[in-house]
Amino acid sequence: MTEAAGLESVIEVRDLVRKFRRKQALAGVDITVPRGVVYGLVGENGAGKTTLLKHILGSLRAQSGSVRVFGMDPVKEPVAVLSQLGYLSEDRDIPGWMRVGEAIGYTQAFYPGWDEAYAESLRERFELDERAKIKTLSRGEKAKCGLLLALAYRPPLLVLDEPSSGLDPSARHDILEAIVRTVADEGRTVLFSSHLLDEVERVADVVAMIHRGKVVFEESLDSIKARHGRLLVSREEEDGPAPELPGLLHASGGGREWTLVCEGELDALRTEATARGLLVLEADTPSLEDVFLARVAPGKRKGTVS
Amino acid sequence: MKPRYRALIWEQSRTAGVLCFVIVMFTLLLQASVFGDLLWQQTLFQDAVHTARMATFWALLLAAAVLLVRQDGHAHLALDFEPRLLHLPAKTVPVLTIVFSTRVLFLFLLGLILMITYRLFFGQSMELQYLVVTLHVYACAQALLWVRHSITGLNYTVPLGILGMSGALVFFGVEPNTLAEIAEQVWNWFTHPPSLLLTLPGALVLAARGIVWQRRDERHGFPPADEALAWLHEIRSVRVYTFESPLEAQLWFEQRRVGRLLPALTLLFSLVFALLFTVLPNLAFDAHTRYWYAPFAGLLAAAIICGRIGLRPRSRFPFHRPQTATMAALSILLIQLRGLFFCFLLVSGLSVLGMLLSGYDGVLMVQMLRMGDLDWIGTADLVLRPAFAVTLIAWALLWISTLPFLLPTLAVFIAFFIIPDISYRYSLGWEHVQKIEDYLMDKGFMLPIICLVFYIAGLTLVLVLKKGLYAPRHLFWGFILLQSISLVLLASTPYLGTHFFAVLACLTIAAMILLPLTAAPLSILHYRLKA
Known about the structure:
The complex is a heterodimer of chains A (306) and B (531). Chain A has helices at 49-57, 78-82, 100-108, 116-125, 139-151, 169-185, 197-203, 221-227, 266-275, 288-296, and strands spanning 9-20, 23-34, 38-43, 64-69, 85-88, 157-161, 189-194, 206-211, 214-220, 228-234, 248-254, 257-263, 279-284. Chain A is an alpha/beta fold. Chain B is an all-alpha fold and 531 residues long. Chain B folds into three domains: 3-235, no CATH class; 244-401, no CATH class; 402-531, no CATH class. Chain B is built from 21 helices and four strands. In chain B, strands 1-2 form a two-stranded antiparallel ribbon. Chain B has a two-stranded parallel sheet with strand order 3-4. In chain B, a hairpin with a 5-residue loop joins strand 1 and strand 2. In chain B, helix 11 packs parallel to helix 14. The longest helix of chain B has 37 residues, at 3-39. Classes of the chains: A alpha/beta (306), B mainly alpha (531). The interface between A and B is medium-sized, with 31 and 31 residues.
């Protein structure tokens, strides 16, 4: 399914199914996270990203299918898995009554490999007062504190659930570009979920897109871009439906000018459009956001590709 | 009326209406059950009437409590005015009036329905004062809850003010009895229906003032308690927390989370029960010993609440640390045990105080001590024995909300008591039911309780083994502990080694004491996995 599957994998999820009463949260998810990559998990709100991460953490038991982290079942061996994993939750669930210093001391006790100097440098970098109570911190400061706790023992796997939610641009830059990349450059693995596609595009090596509990695609960012093309075309007729092209995913515009996002190589798409009497005004590689919208935006999809 | 207000009335009526409807149904069942006892001559008329009246009053208070709390967006219980109502495009005062009036109206209707059903069942009118008191309690509590953020410092200035005024009056020569009379007159005033004409609008005005200030982000009054004590935090040096082991860190976490809760709630509930028994002496089972057992009732009530909070941490933070469910559960068990030890000392002291205040028993004990009929060891035995028994019950109550404990308990309870009882009463043709009842009456309630405990203990043991929560050697040590506790208990009974039921009872009590060791890890595992 994926080119990443050939590398040594840290996480392997196979045919994972999860239902919450009548709602199908995950419907046969397969992903493979190779060692040493930044793996972005994208999808709309409610697509199943957090549910998938909870299975990886061992907070949810697989109703069907399997989850392996470092080759182990996180439900059966939570201690072995969690001791190698740093996690930042979406709701930053550090208890409000704790002080920053207390949260650091408490977490440190569970990880023999805790790097005190690194923790202190992160605390200073994030400008966190160790006497401050967690409940008095802003959303962004809570995220930074959570990140500090997840990073300071240098775990081989870092799992971040919506890490930049509520962060200002400079903090987002700090977390994503400075820290996440550094972690990956050290040969460690980062799995993070986000619905901010521009940031995923900036840092991820491999991207998996989840839509309604299913993985729409899972491949490297370069491959995704090489596999899709965006054309701005013009036609002679004023009225009529959107122009058709092989592999068309999404068409927007009206009248004579249309923007088409298609699956296929850019040169081939351009040739095909010209052959169909369309004048190609612009042809380029779509952004991840364009691909995402073309594939999952409700009411705008032209086709589905497995 | 504007559509927005009609919509709000509809929404508030639906919420309050459903809550009140559930409580009406529940109380009707209770009243009908008492009436059934009366009909089948299982109880005396006076006792039935008293029980039904008390059940109705407690149902009214329960309704008031339920109307005071709601669930917020995180499904946590919240006591504040719902912030979303402040964001509605409507004036604050009408919105607040609708919310408050709807709840008062439904509480009033609930009381009225229950009083009518009470009259239908027992042919007597229930005193209006129960409803009036409930409405007062609700209105005052609601107003205080809604103003507490805007009018700050109420939580410590009001009790300090009352204590200060009482102290000043006593200092200037006013007899304590006069103070009690004043308190009684104030209480009597609260039981008169016309007083509602003052309390309800007063509470509404106070609440409205608070909410309007809250909307404008204005605060008035004294500094909040934590700000008033902020200087303490300032002068306190920051402690660098370092723990030797994960267990030590987890124990610290649980101590900070629930360690102080049990003693604090025990003290609070003891005072509440003592106060309740003072102003409503009819509520007490026995007027002579009411202050003696108020702390015991307080400890039991606190244990039920702490058990629930103890096993269900709001944050999943500790579950994301590399620790087993057994270790997380053991930390809670040890911290609750520590809290229970302090509670044991606390209720022992308070019960002595209560015994002296209760009059007859206290005076008798002091006289016997003076005359040499009772020595200090005997006195300690007299005081500590009931406190110890209550502490043991509180220990069991702390873990009553663990899932494997609760569900089979209910199932077996229904199987043993309710089904035979109903079938016997309504002559469903089960001939053996009479025999079972006779047997139970003969052996008391021992046998079903023994069966229940061993059933639950066996079930949890099978589950912890199946899930690998304990190693077999742990179970071996658990068995040794069970035997040791049983022998200690047996040694304290007059039937040492001779009476089969005494041996069985000691084993049962020992199993109940040890049951949390298996039930709590199962509960934590269940909660951790949400499965």
